[in-house]
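2024-03-11 09:14:02 INFO worker-7 job=invfold-0412 stage=load source=structure_tokens
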């Protein structure tokens, strides 16, 4: 008997208003001691970077990560739909895209 599993990132779509501060926390419910995280916002068509999103581990022992953007960072995005992803590097240089989805930017 074989087991089936998925190595694909979990889906998480974000919505925000251009020019507003944005932030949320994500609980992975794992010990993330020794991990680093990073996020990016990209064009879903070209894959080129279109904005900055800041990701920070706020509680490593329980796996809580903050994802945030300042007013200036959201103002720099034109209204529309973009892709985003959150990646982590676990101890031993194990890289994984943990979450991905769309960012809907409203006027």
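2024-03-11 09:14:09 INFO worker-7 stage=emit residues=107
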């Amino acid at each position: 008997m074989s087991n089936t599993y998925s190595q694909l990132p979990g889906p998480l779509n974000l919505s925000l208003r251009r020019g507003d501060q944005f932030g949320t926390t994500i609980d992975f419910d794992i010990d993330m001691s020794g991990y680093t995280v990073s996020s990016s916002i990209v064009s879903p068509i070209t894959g080129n970077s279109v904005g900055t999103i800041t990701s920070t581990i706020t509680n490593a022992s329980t796996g809580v990560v903050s994802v945030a953007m300042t007013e200036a960072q959201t103002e720099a995005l034109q209204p529309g739909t973009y892709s985003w992803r959150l990646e982590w590097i676990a101890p031993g240089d194990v890289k994984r895209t943990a979450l991905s989805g769309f960012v809907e930017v409203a006027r």
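2024-03-11 09:14:09 INFO worker-7 stage=report msg="Residues 27 and 61 are 11 Å apart (CA to CA)."
2024-03-11 09:14:10 INFO worker-7 job finished
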